[in-house]
Amino acid sequence: MNRNIKRMADFFAAGPCKLRPHFKAHKTPEIAKRQLAAGSCTGLTCATVFEAEVAASFCDDVLIANEVIGSDMTARVAGLAARGVNIKVAVDSPEGLEQIAAAASELGVEVGVLVDLNVGMPRCGVAPGEPAVDLARRVADTEGIRLRGAMGYEGHAVGIPDREQREAAARASMDSLLLTVQAIRNAGLPCDIVSAGGTGTYDITGRIPGITEIQAGSYVLKDTSYGKLDLPFEQAFWVLATVISRPSPVLCVADAGLKSCTEDHGNPAVRDIEGASILFLSDEHASIALPPESPVHVGDRIHLVPSHIDPTINLHDVFYAIDGDRIEPWPIAARGHGAAE
Amino acid sequence: MNRNIKRMADFFAAGPCKLRPHFKAHKTPEIAKRQLAAGSCTGLTCATVFEAEVAASFCDDVLIANEVIGSDMTARVAGLAARGVNIKVAVDSPEGLEQIAAAASELGVEVGVLVDLNVGMPRCGVAPGEPAVDLARRVADTEGIRLRGAMGYEGHAVGIPDREQREAAARASMDSLLLTVQAIRNAGLPCDIVSAGGTGTYDITGRIPGITEIQAGSYVLKDTSYGKLDLPFEQAFWVLATVISRPSPVLCVADAGLKSCTEDHGNPAVRDIEGASILFLSDEHASIALPPESPVHVGDRIHLVPSHIDPTINLHDVFYAIDGDRIEPWPIAARGHGAAE
């Protein structure tokens, strides 16, 4: 993990583009603090208001790269601004803008906004071009709100294994983002921050002139999905499981299932048993196909390699961080929504 | 939920087979207490030691229908016996038996054991017939351990949509289980408990003479997977989400993704929008395909219907239980492993 952090910080040390590590990947202050300490960072990226609240206890520049809707949530964002945090949120609709502005006015604070552009993935984001410029104008004209820039996440590109195809998809998205940024500036509006990118595109998008920061998260611990790409990062976390059954020569069962690992990016891999692969996960079990005569016994500890870092970590309350002989528990503190019951 | 609980209790009221509701489905004491209070129950089924510890605070007859391996975990099982809980665990190997016996001896207590049989699903369980009888003999001869019976979970059968095929698969599994139970008894060994079944087979397996209890869990809240079967239970829980973006006429985005719902049994369904379906889940988003002109707006609250109850609930820390105008938070208290850091 430390090597991954250093490699990424070194890449962005030269600038002008910087790194804004995505806290959602691990939700763990002990990790985020190390990412920030390594340098080359503008602040942290978050996906939820609670992540931003946890992040704000050790970082004063936080972007919620997501739409924040609902008066309970917008009030918490304004509360962060009132505490002096340089908080920014993504906005992609007039309704969303009104909601965050109402919360800011209520507390008499100013909240930063990035116009969120859809650059190719069917998710949030206003359409590039004129609709985005219209929204930016509206943002700039809204009391309690300060237009800080634009973002466009090329999430459909970050996981493409073939480097050339990935680069082409990322560049097409960034063309769309940067043309709109130019149009926003031509309209006389400020657009200081241009935020994009992920672990799969950090060295593509991060070298395109005009992009000011990259929202990469997974690089810090990695998973088997990003393991298929040509990235200079090392697998740095595993789910430790115990073999609880060896019912046949070609099968063992470990005590880590759907409540310990996710399979949305495919089954986890098995690190310690040559030729083994997961047949299926059930709630509390991994049924693992073995080559015959594998030396696997009830009680063996094995490491599963997660296929998707973010939702896998979200299943757990604590990391056990290993540094030589030292093992430290690191709370995954920003899991959930932190709302009072 | 109350109707589901009553229907299931009514089904088992006549006996001789009873219900042992599976706590793993919801991990929520407020729900389990209502299941027990409805009657027809032998106790609770659990999948983890921590579930058993939480269950033991309001139920004195607990089966861990799973192999318990590792001295930290077996010590906790023996600890439950020391507290006077009628605790039983599944065992499918001599190694597993030795481990639980060592923990029982350490505390000078007796732990109940069910021989866990593989009745068709590639997961835990000793092979039926002679291997199972051998293991039962070993269990009966082990100090600190009391042979209480056998179990065999027909997990490959419970989800088969076609009733006839489901019944055939369940009956074949139970033939295998009951023949072995007979062989264990013929060997002069006790076998009082014969535990099997799930929500999909409760009225098949639960009517086969010789089966003494059914380990059903999902019936209490249901999901879209069990919704495909001909079961008399009603959907009783949803994930409440907020529409945070309406980027195009045919797309909206809600703030519930892979960290709020699982997709191991397929994407959740969308309850409140006619013709809507989830395109994909990402970490914090559901991208939802809409029929054009759907009256969906930023800020709308929508209900997602989970496809798989157990791992979905495991993502959350609390239920909001709705009874008319009353809303009560019910902690999902047995999530995780409860180990001290």
What does this structure look like?
The structure is a homodimer of 341-residue chains. The first copy, chain A, is of the alpha/beta class. Chain A is 30% helix and 24% strand. Chain A is built from ten helices and 16 strands. The first copy, chain A, has helices at 2-13, 29-37, 49-55, 71-82, 94-107, 130-140, 163-186, 202-205, 224-227, 309-313; strands at 18-19, 44-46, 61-67, 86-91, 111-116, 145-152, 193-196, 213-214, 239-248, 251-254, 269-270, 277-282, 285-289, 301-305, 318-323, 326-331. The first copy, chain A, has an eight-stranded parallel sheet with strand order 1-8-7-6-5-4-3-2. In chain A, helix 4 packs across helix 5 and helix 6 (130-140) crosses helix 7. The first copy, chain A, is elongated. The first copy, chain A, starts with a helix and ends in a 10-residue tail after the last strand. The model of chain A has no long low-confidence stretch (mean pLDDT 97). Chains A and B meet through helix 5, strand 9 and strand 12 of A and helix 5, strand 9 and strand 12 of B.
User: Can you count the helices of chain A?
Assistant: 10
Strand content of chain A: 15-25%
Q: Biggest interface and which pair forms it?
A: A-B, 58 and 58 residues
pLDDT under 50 segments of chain A (min length 5)? none
**What order do the strands of the largest sheet of chain A run in, or round the barrel if closed?**
1-8-7-6-5-4-3-2
Number of strands of chain A: 16
Average predicted local confidence, pLDDT of chain A: 97
What is the end-to-end distance of chain A?
35 Å
